[in-house]
Amino acid sequence: MLALEGVEVRYGGLIALRDVSLQVNQGEVVAVIGPNGAGKTTLFKAVSGVVPLVAGSIRLEGEPIERLSPALRPHRGIAHVPEGRQVFGDLTVEENLQLGTVALRDPREAGRALQRCYDLFPVLWERRQQLAGSLSGGQQQMLAIGRGIASHPRLLMLDEPSMGLAPTIVDTIFESVQRLNRDEGLTVLIVEQRAIEAIEICDRGYVLSTGEVVMRGTRAELLADKNLREAYLGA
Amino acid sequence: MAFAGHIEALLQILTAGLLLGCLYGLMCAGLGLIFGIMRVINFAQGEFMMLAMYAGLTGVAVLAPGRSWAFATAMLVACAVAALFYGLGALTHWALVSRVSGARAVGTADAGHTGQLILTLGLSLVLQNGGLMLFGSSPVSIPNDAAVRSWTMEFAEGDVMLFVNQARAFSALMAVAAVLLTILLMARTGIGRQLRAVANNPIAALYMGVNVDRAFRTAFGIGLALTAVAGVCVATFYPFQAYTGFDFVIIMYAGVVLGGMGSVGGAFLGGLLIGLVQQLSTLVLPPQLQNTAVFIVFLAVLLIRPQGLFGRGVERA
């Protein structure tokens, strides 16, 4: 579904990603873990097109997208739920979700797409007329995910969905992501600092460190790796 | 009798301030919309308005050479000029402004503000002097039937009389209609929702698949169109020349800042307030000082509410 090959990104002279290759197959949950500053968010920005590639290629279902304008990529089926949620705080919950439907292929589907978000996160229905900026952090994260899936994406990219949230809320959010994957076959690429939780819900994972992929493997392989447990899982 | 005279003067000035204020408000709404969505201060807004005034003058001269129906024609011409300036705005954004704003400016150290300042300031000088070359320096206005007609209202058995110039009154109505239409567009339509999203968080809007550059282009076009309508309306009762844009742009900045940057309704009310203060000041100050009064009130308001009267402060990552 998504294939990155030899991706390199620089900020000025600083290399943020070096020779990163990564693959996400249809229906998988793939986790990218690694410490702060490893380049996880940059990886997502490269896929979304808001940072340019110096080298490498990005293919979505076989088609190269690295030259496609960032505004067109959601229309190809990529939904990016950014770090720190970034909901439109001055707009209502419903308006946020409606903006999620901009990239829908068939605009007549918008009503049903909103309903799907409300079914997944009933609290958003209760607060649909409220300004998104007035929601709690957890609710904003739900809204950010709802806004992402409102476009019926082929690939959902979640950047640090657990950031700044209480553990019980993180569980709720991870459960809903698993549900989307299990029940609807949604392909998910997730970036997390909370490595254990991310590995537990993924099929495969990559470990990123200072801009390079230092390890890759299935969930079982990652959980079994002693070095990884010591380095990232703190256990 | 002297008391009735004071009341009469006050009433007359309040009316004048309200009517002129509505037009200031419309100009401010145009400038404010551009700033609110793009965070670009368009220093050439006044010069675009001056061009719109000449466009209106030309349109009316062609369509209604005599004075009869000239005002109604001017209002229709104002709508056509709005469409024209929407196009001109979109073109200016595409050719010039987009090079120093939006996606291209994101990476630069000052988010493109220096480039925007120099570009729009330069544009204003080019347009100003271009206008001078093309149209000459003698003041003109759109000759029309309504400018020389007034309604007379009598109060207190004829002791207090109020004259309302018809060109000013209809122009103010036009301004209110244009602003209400814009507010409706912003609040109720899909394109308005996209514009607000882009204003709120352009990167997140990009993640939604919103074409941010096109949204900016739309905003710049609408902003110029609003100010252009105000220009044609003002031109029906106010003599103008190539430097007129500069006189008004000062008022526009003040109105937008006063209203609280970023809301169309707020910018309109800011402009309205400036019209009122400016006219009321003539009760106590010589007319040459009316803009001084405007800026004293302006500074006083900002001392108390730096975010403007209707603003919610700057909150932007």
Verbal overview:
The complex is a heterodimer of chains A (235) and B (317). Chain A has helices at 40-48, 93-100, 110-120, 122-126, 137-149, 167-184, 195-201, 219-224, 226-233; strands spanning 2-11, 14-24, 29-33, 55-60, 63-64, 78-81, 155-159, 187-192, 204-209, 212-218. With 235 residues, chain A is of the alpha/beta class. In chain A, helix 6 links the parallel strand 7 and strand 8 (187-192). The longest helix of chain A has 18 residues, at 167-184. The model of chain A has no long low-confidence stretch (mean pLDDT 92). The radius of gyration of chain B is 20 Å and the shape is globular. A two-stranded antiparallel ribbon of chain B has the order 1-2. In chain B, a hairpin with a 4-residue loop joins strand 1 and strand 2. Chain A binds chain B through residues 48, 50, 70-75, 79-82, 86-91, 95, 98-100, 102-103, 147, 151, and chain B through 103, 190, 193-194, 196-197, 199-201, 203-213, 315.
What's the mean pLDDT score of chain A? Answer: 92
Strand content of chain A: 25-35%
Number of helices of chain A: 9
Low-confidence regions of chain B: none
- What coarse outline of chain A follows from CA principal-axis ratios? globular
Which class of secondary structure composition applies to the elements of chain B? Answer: mainly alpha
Largest sheet of chain A: 6 strands, mixed
| Topology order of chain B in helix (H) and strand (E) letters | HHHHEEHHHHHHH
**Largest chain-chain contact?**
A-B, 26 and 21 residues
- Rounded to an integer in angstroms, the radius of gyration calculated over CA atoms of chain A is 17 Å
Tell how many strands the DSSP assignment of chain B holds. 2
Structural class of chain A: alpha/beta
**Biggest sheet statistics of chain B:** 2 strands, antiparallel
Number of helical regions of chain B = 11
Residues in helix, % of chain B = 55-70%
Helix content of chain A: 25-40%
What is the element string of chain A, with H for helices and E for strands? EEEHEEEHHHHEHEHEEHH
* Termini gap of chain B: 61 Å
Q: Could you tell me the number of beta strands of chain A?
A: 10
Low-confidence stretches of chain A at least 5 residues in length (pLDDT < 50)?
none
